[in-house]
Design brief:
Elements lengths: L3 H26 L4 H4 L9 H15 L13 H9 L11 H15 L3 H16 L10 H19 L7 H41 L2 H10 L5 E14 L1 H5 L4 H21 L3 E6 L2 E6 L8 H25 L6 E16 L5 E5 L1 H11 L5 E5 H7 L3 E11 L3 E11 L18
Parallel strand pairs: 4-6
Antiparallel strand pairs: 1-3, 1-4, 2-3, 4-5, 6-8, 7-8
Helix pairs in contact: 1-3, 1-5, 3-5, 4-7, 5-6, 6-8, 7-8, 11-12
Main location: membrane
Family: Belongs to the adenylyl cyclase class-4/guanylyl cyclase family.
Catalytic activity: ATP = 3',5'-cyclic AMP + diphosphate
Length: 424
């Protein structure tokens, strides 16, 4: 059984010996060519400044270490050789690893929680600087690198006379195991971050529930939905005005408008389907079926119209070209599903989509054109202006209405008091 004092003595001996090897490596580091000394590290210090600070600290922590005999080999040079790094020791500065390694030696001497915590933080800082896309970089590479360092440390401590080498090796091994657990923690976080980013990107393309089904089954079953509300927007005079804009201005203006629409869709639980040129398409009631979709779309349409009107007024005031908007929507059955193998797209089909498109194209600037089906569902809550029968391309004459706003007794588009149960 090791006493506390005996363990402290053993830790002092093995840490001092490894520090001796590390010290002479630092001396060689500081004799490398100037271009290697002036590289800026993650803490803002040059490589030379960082290494001089580490050398000074090492000399304070291990008194008279500068007077020790030069070891039979350079620890880091031999480590680099065994790792088969693509660079040569003399052509590279190890200041990043040196920052970590001094904390490792100090934690080897005293494994108190606060000292081990500094070692872990140094490890995290070191790995934050890695280029994880570099050719040849892998987790197996990191394991091999640490295995080589652990073996070198074992070789060093086995040259120390009159100590319990097995106990010394156990100390080295336990620290190495903790180090690898810290590295593993870093990679697990990176893996989780990558998964989260992958999900985020996928959810930008597909609804959350559809993305989950695709990931689980590698396919998405098409569905028929009895009732949904499809909305289209379009900008009047888009072609003429866009011809006067630079590509940057055109994209910026479209992004400004469509970003507002994205936000409004999110507020009302609508699913954006796609944009085609200057046209924006979204739907309520998919992929999760609900009975409020026509109401959600109506409120969203009013907010879209209002948002574009405010942009228009601002641009007119500043003498900037602006677009007027037409909006149309219709309620009815649709089919929905995912198409594509490499580039996925969630889309909807059916006559409801075609009629919704005709509602938009048969509308007027600054107005929201609504089909009779949608009107009948919304008329208890919203005000409308009847338009009568209007000719629509390939659809003959269709009864249409302009949606004007929410009835005063139900509040405003920003704050309503409608009982959703009435929408069943």
């Amino acid at each position: 059984m090791y006493s506390v004092r005996k363990m402290e003595t053993l830790r002092n001996l093995i840490s001092y010996e490894i520090a001796r090897y590390f010290y002479h490596h630092l001396i060689e580091e500081l004799s490398k060519p100037e271009p290697l000394q002036i590289q800026i590290g993650y803490d803002g210090k040059t490589s030379g400044e960082a290494n001089r600070d580490i050398l000074s600290r090492l000399s304070i922590e291990f008194p008279k270490i500068e007077q020790t005999e030069k070891p039979p080999f350079n620890l880091i040079r031999e480590w680099a050789k065994r790792n088969r790094f693509f660079f040569h020791y003399d052509e590279y500065n190890f200041d990043r690893y040196n920052r970590l390694y001094i904390e490792r030696i100090l934690a080897l001497r005293n494994n108190a929680p606060e000292i081990n915590s500094r070692f872990k933080e140094a490890t995290l800082n070191n790995f934050r600087q890695f280029d994880y896309n570099r050719t040849g970089f892998s987790i197996s590479f990191l394991i091999r690198v640490e295995n080589n360092m652990r073996e070198l440390m074992r070789e060093i401590i086995f040259t120390i006379p009159n100590i319990d080498h097995n106990k010394a090796w156990q100390i080295i091994f336990e620290q190495s195991k903790d180090y690898q657990e810290n590295v593993n923690e870093i990679f697990e976080k990176r893996l989780q971050d990558a998964r989260d980013e992958s999900d985020r990107l996928l959810h930008n393309i597909l609804p959350v529930s559809i993305a989950a089904e695709l990931k689980k089954n590698n396919r998405v079953a098409p569905v028929s939905i009895n009732s949904a509300t499809v909305l289209f927007t379009d900008f009047k005079g888009f072609t003429q005005i866009s011809e006067k804009m630079s590509p940057e201005e055109l994209i910026s203006n479209l992004d400004e408008c469509f970003s507002l629409f994205d936000q409004i869709c999110a507020e009302h639980g609508l699913e954006k389907i796609k944009t085609i040129g200057d046209s924006f398409m979204c739907v309520g009631g998919v992929p999760e079926v609900n009975h409020t979709h026509v109401f959600d779309v109506a409120l969203a349409a009013l907010k879209m119209c209002d948002a574009i009107q405010k942009l228009k007024e601002e641009k007119k005031k500043n003498g900037i070209p602006y677009w007027d908007i037409r909006i149309g929507f219709h309620t009815g059955p649709i089919a929905a599903g995912v198409i594509g193998k490499n580039k996925f797209s969630y889309d909807i089909w059916g006559d409801t989509v075609n009629i919704a498109s005709r509602m938009e194209s048969s509308g007027e600037p600054g107005k929201i054109n609504v089909s009779e089906t949608s009107y009948e569902l919304l008329s208890p809550f919203f005000t409308f202006t009847p338009r009568g029968r209007i000719a629509a391309k390939n659809k003959g004459e269709i009864v249409m209405y302009f949606l004007e706003g929410l009835k005063s007794e139900f509040g405003t588009t920003q704050s309503h008091n409608i009982d959703f149960a009435l929408l069943n």
